[in-house]
Amino acid sequence: MKTFIPILAIFAVLACKKDQPTPMAFDDFSFVAPSSWKKFEAQGYDSKVGGITNGRDTLRYDMGMYSYSFTNETAATHHRTELMQNGYKTLTVWPKKTGQGLMGIYIKVDDFRKLSIYGRSKDEDVVLEILASVKIL
Hints:
The chain is of the alpha+beta class.
């Protein structure tokens, strides 16, 4: 019994440290990211901007009329997938060579609001999961 309690305590600590998915809501959209990712704000002039970071990787967002639509990420260098997500047509891009290019999602909400979320990461699976969870509010 004496050894059971320390072992149970170790499992409890390890369970708490697991990076659990956490919903993150912004003014116009939300997504789910690991709990180690934290929000930050930035100053925008013609759009709402900000992002999330885990201290190693950063994803930035731009919600406005002139948000980036990934025109430089061509089929020669990037995977480009168009899907319906949450009732909106989305474009998701990620580099063909892991860690060597921009990853992101672009959603045209209406004529005045377009959302782009983008960044660079070698942990592409995590970023793609975050992008797949984006919902327009």
